[in-house]
Amino acid sequence: MSARALELKEEGNKYFQNGDFKNAELLYGRAIQQDSRNPKLFTNRAMTRIRLQSWESCIDDCLRSIELDTTTANMKGYYYLAQAQLALKHPNEALSSALTAYDQCLKTHSSSTRSVSELVLQAKKEKWEARERERIRRRSSLLRELEDALQRMKHADLRTIDIEYQGRENSTDAREEREEVEDTWRRKIEELRSVFALADPTNLSPRSVPDYLIDNISFSIMHDPVLTKNGSSYDRSTILEHLKRSHTDPLTREPLTLADLRPNLALKQACAEFLERNGWAVDY
Question: Residue 203's closest CA among 262, 132, 121, 258?
Fold first, then answer.
C-alpha cells in the first residue's frame, strides 16, 4: 500500500471509530484512488457502506475485493458480501457467500468463526422462510393476491420517501423512515398470514426448526449429536470431518480431540422426535 493510501486509510479508520461513516467512506474512497489494487481498502469501504445501508455499493466493493484477492485471507470480502445480499433479500446468494466465509474461517482459525457461523444460520433461515412463504402462498390464491396488494402499498410508501429525500437518501432521517415503513408493512403481512393460518392450520401455518436442533457446522438438523468440552453440540459426522482438518473446537478454537466428544442423548431424542413429526425438516 502506498504511503498516501495508508495515510488516508488511517484517517478513515478514525472517522469510522467515531461513528462518522460518511466521511470514513469518503476517505476510504480517496485511498482507493491512490491504490486501486489493494483489496483491503475495498473491504474497509464495504464495512462502512454496511453501516450506511448502501447495500448495492457494498456488494460492488466486496466483489472488487474478491476479484483482487481470492485467497482465504479475504474472508471479510465474503462476510460483508453475505450481509449486503441478505439485506437485499437474496438469501440464496447470501448463504453461498456466508458458507465461503465460514470455510475460510475454519482454514485460518479465525476469531470471527462464531459471528460468521451465526450469519450462515441466519441466511439459511431466511432461505427457508422464503420457501415457506411461497409454499403458503401457493396454497391460497386469495392470500397471494392480498399479500401482493400489501407489497405494492409498501413500495409506494418507500417511493414517496425516496422522492422526499432525493439527494439525501443515506441521511439518518431517510433511513429511519424507511425502516419504519418496512416494519409497519411487515407486521401487516404477518397479521394477514396469521389470520389465514387460523383458518387452515394444517397447510398454512409456517414451519421452522428450533435453533438448538441445528448443527453449527453443516447448518442442518442433527441426527447423532455429540457434546464438546465447552458444552456445544454438533452432529457426530460433521465434527469428525472437522477434526480431520483441525484439532480445535470450531467456535472457541480451543484444542479438541475425539476423546473429548460425548453423546448428547437427550438432544438426540429431541431431534428424533422432531423429525418423526416433521419429515420436511430433513431438507432444511
Answer: 132
Share of the chain above pLDDT 70, in %: 95
Measured in residues, the chain has a length of 284
Mean pLDDT of 59-73: 89
Helix, strand, coil proportions of the chain in percent (round to 5)?
75, 5, 25
Separation of alpha carbons 78 and 96, rounded Å: 9
CB 106 within 8 A of CB 246: yes
Cβ distance 65 to 78 under 8 Å?
no
Point out which residues pair with 233 in neighbouring strands: 227
Q: Cβ distance 44 to 8 under 8 Å?
A: no
Beta carbons of 120 and 92 less than 8 angstroms apart: no
* Burial of 17: CB neighbours in 10 Å, binned 0-12, 13-18, 19+: exposed
- Return phi, psi of residue 262, to 5°: -130, 140
For the cut 70, the answer to whether the pLDDT of residue 33 exceeds it is yes
Q: Per the structure block, which three cell numbers stand in for 214? A: 441445528
| Cα–Cα dist 94/240, whole Å | 26
Residue 279 φ then ψ, to 5° = -60, -25
pTM of structure: 0.67
* CA dist list (Å): 173 to 127, 164, 192: 30, 11, 29
Given a contact cutoff of 8 angstroms between Cβ atoms, the answer to whether 216 and 229 are in contact is no
Burial of 265 (0-12, 13-18, 19+ CB in 10 A): exposed
